Amino acid sequence: MAIDWYEEFVDTDHTPGPDELVALYYFEPAAGISKEEAVGRIASESSTGTWTTLFTMPPRMRDLQAKAFEIEGNYVKIAYPLALWEEGNAPQLLSGIAGNVFGMKALESLRLIDASLPADYLRHFKGPHFGMEGIRDMMKVHGRPLTGAVPKPKVGFTAEEHAEVGYETWMGGFDFVKDDENLTSLSFNRFEDRVRAMTTMRDRAEQETGDVKSAFINITADTETMKKRAEMLADYGWNYAMIDVVVTGTAAVATLRDHCSDLGLAIHAHRAMHAAFDRDEKHGITMQFLAKIMRLIGVAQIHTGTAVGKLVGTKAEATVLADMVREKHTNAVDHMALDQDWGAIKSAFPVSSGGLHPGLVPDVLDIYGSDLVLLVSGGIHGHPKHAGRRHGHHAGN
Length: 397
Ligand code: CAP
Ligand code: MG
Prior knowledge:
One of its GO terms (molecular function) is oxidoreductase activity. By secondary structure, the chain is an alpha/beta fold.
């Protein structure tokens, strides 16, 4: 006989145990679907799920069922038994709580806001290799934001031209030169050539300034190529690799996290493509959840927006994101973040970039404080005095 099976997955008397994983969603039921049915279907589809008439279920299966236990307006909290989740497997977590559920006809929309991870789950993840203090010691920069700039236009320079701009950037006082997200290894600027040219310029800038100079050189490609590119960076004395973490995916980032740690490389995580799923407040996955996953896997820093620059993101979001990556304990924020104790997982730097120019820097420091990687790019390379100098003609003629 047919049981209204989704009711098995709703229990508003349930109190999550200390070893249960809790996910917070925003949801809108489709027409004709009650909230109870909607949340029961989300809990079902993201755990043991079934829609056929149930046979008499063995106890083990029943114990694995998720429970929607708190419905408040269009927000629901769902508790998941620990046994549902493979130790240390971030892709599998996403397939569970951020997989089929987005395509259910029973829902008009669904947004995964955050998930609070129990200690017994968290301890299987390595987290950042260095942590913010480790990065500061490595760069010998304390008490101020770390700074960098991206040669603009995004692509078009040869490796030598790119390195020349890099030299000017370092001599201008910046700690880092960052590749743009779509610069990898192009016919006019091969990765290997750029590494060699940048190494020469870095050594010169370090000699002339006495400071540690570094770069976020973009290794984004298939995983095997990324591993080889990381090895070349280490061979040439670099201490960072840049990865576009959304387009490469959590599995590749996890593989490279281990490889880069062995090589002594920190990972700069660019988040290009995040706005495909985190911009719509009613559907998709929040940036704070992406930031949580990437800190868990172990990037050293991740772009978290500027709230004042050219790309989407509010001040409240930037603050939640900064806490998500920096704090030992992330406090719950209504409908934005769940309480999270990070245990032994080290901190990661928020990176503020995107449409920044010196005039906006005070606003950004207001939001983030000084534990930050601050990138100004178009904001300096676009400077009227700067534009003409590089190519032999003088601005103004
Ligand atoms: C910034 C940037 C970064 C954005 C990414 C760009 O350059 O290099 O990719 O910061 O956005 O290509 O736009 P500008 P976010 O400073 O010239 O804008 O940091 O929000 O992920
Ligand atoms: Mg860019």
